[in-house]
Amino acid sequence: MTKVQIDQEQVGIIKVGYQENRERPLQIVGIQTQARRDLLNYADLILIDECHTTCWFDTYKTLDETFPNAIKIGFTASPWRRKFPTEYFGQWFEKLVKGPDIQELIDQGYLSDFRNYGYDGVDIARLESECSNPNRTSDNFDEVRQQQLYRAC
């Protein structure tokens, strides 16, 4: 907050090791800390970090129900859900704003370039996962098929 010149006297932090001051107009609290504390008395803007998971926590659902008129803005570097169609961003947000992709961030110097290590010749597109087959119940690749492909290398 200090980088954007917000006076520290305006900011309350609800976290172990910090003295709470809920009278301050801006409160910073992690979702897991909020789960263990009394809810705030008021919120007109809620910023949700890691919203690709956080929005499905019971604590966030409580915040959403308690402050229905608050503006909610979610942030994530992983704008997808593996549990589609039962859980999707449209449940919580009206709009999705796409940011730069990984290659753009590398080109702009925000991320370092990467090297990929792995087996040559394994076509992972041939592996079924929950994402590729909505009827599967496992989050992981089919282990039997995975072993067959990797043994062939």
Brief sketch in words of this structure:
By secondary structure, the chain is of the alpha/beta class.
Topology:
Elements: E1 11-14, E2 26-29, H1 31-34, E3 45-49, H2 51-54, H3 58-66, E4 71-75, H4 102-107, H5 143-151
Parallel strand pairs: 1-2, 3-4
Explain what the structure shows:
- It is a single chain.
- The model has no long low-confidence stretch (mean pLDDT 82).
- The chain is α/β, with parallel strands linked by helices and 153 residues long.
- It is 21% helix and 12% strand.
- The longest helix has 9 residues.
- The protein has a domain of 39 residues.
- The strands form 2 sheets. A two-stranded parallel sheet has the order 1-2.
Strand order in the largest sheet: 1-2
Q: Could you tell me the number of beta strands?
A: 4
- Give the count of helical stretches: 5
Give the fraction of residues assigned to helices: 10-25%
Which structural category fits the helices and strands? alpha/beta
Any idea what the radius of gyration is?
Answer: 21 Å
- Which shape, going by the Cα principal axes? elongated
Strand fraction: 5-15%
How can the largest sheet be summarized?
Answer: 2 strands, parallel
SSE ordering? EEHEHHEHH
Distance between the termini: 51 Å
User: What is the quaternary state of this protein?
Assistant: single chain
Overall residue-averaged pLDDT value: 82
Low-confidence stretches: none
Which key phrases capture this entry?
two-stranded parallel ribbon, alpha/beta, 153 residues, elongated, 5 helices, single chain, 21% helix
